[in-house]
Write a structure and sequence with these properties.
- By secondary structure, the chain is mainly alpha-helical.
- It is 74% helix and 11% strand.
- The chain has helices spanning 10-72, 75-81, 127-217, and strands at 87-98, 101-112.
- The protein has a two-stranded antiparallel ribbon with strand order 1-2.
- Strand 1 and strand 2 form a beta hairpin.
- The radius of gyration is 38 Å and the shape is rod-shaped.
């Protein structure tokens, strides 16, 4: 691991130790955030899977019904029957915060003219068309919820990847580099201190020798 190019002073050593403590606290917080994000993400993925299976099953039944209806009805009659829908859907987009990630929240409502959702008479249409229209009414809320879940899962996955990169950068680059730099500065300071102590002892010995020499001459 590369050692930082800094002055090997006690002030710099103190600064790096504080920076190391901050980095280690940040590393722990980011790891906890990553783990919580993963938990939320897996919950969304499980719910997403359930919704997708329901939506695909219902859409398949809608498709089968339309195929049969188009076989027993003329194209113009089928188009005329579906030309003017009686149901309106209103969609409001809101957001909420999940672990510092802003995810969408879809709020929707369906409004029909009375209880009847069919915009055509039953004389010239088939029962399969009725079933398909009813299935579409049921599947629409599931499709909107599925869209909300998939977008939320995508945003959480992006945040997980960002957090993972930050955790790795701290764990494998910044923290080891700080530790190595602190170790290197500490060794240099200890070496300087030993050198200063050796010089002081040598000076002391010289002074004692000079003092003894002076006393001998007297």
């Amino acid at each position: 691991m590369a050692i930082m190019q800094v002055n090997p002073t006690r002030m710099e050593l103190t600064r790096l130790k504080k920076r190391l403590q901050t980095s280690m606290r940040g590393h722990k917080l980011l790891k906890d955030k990553r783990d919580d994000l993963m938990k939320k993400f897996l919950e969304l993925v499980r719910r997403n899977k359930e919704l997708r299976e329901q939506v695909e099953q219902k859409i398949m039944s809608v498709y089968d019904g339309f195929v049969i209806a188009s076989a027993v009805m003329s194209p113009s009659m089928l188009e005329e029957a579906l030309m003017l829908p009686k149901t309106q859907v209103e969609l409001d987009l809101d957001t909420r915060n999940v672990m510092s990630v802003t995810v969408p929240v879809f709020q929707f409502s369906q409004a029909s003219e009375g209880e009847d959702i069919y915009s055509y008479g039953f004389v010239s249409t088939s029962g399969e068309l009725d079933d398909s229209v009813e299935a579409l009414r049921e599947v629409l809320p599931l499709m909107l919820e599925l869209a909300q879940m998939e977008k939320s899962a995508q945003l959480l996955a992006e945040e997980i990847e960002k957090t993972r990169r930050r955790v790795n950068a701290l764990e494998y680059v910044q923290i080891p580099s700080l530790q190595e730099t602190i170790k290197s500065i500490s060794m240099k300071l200890d070496e300087n201190e030993r050198g200063n102590l050796a010089r002081l002892m040598k000076i002391k010995d010289m002074m004692i020798a000079q003092s003894r020499q002076a006393m001998g001459e007297n």
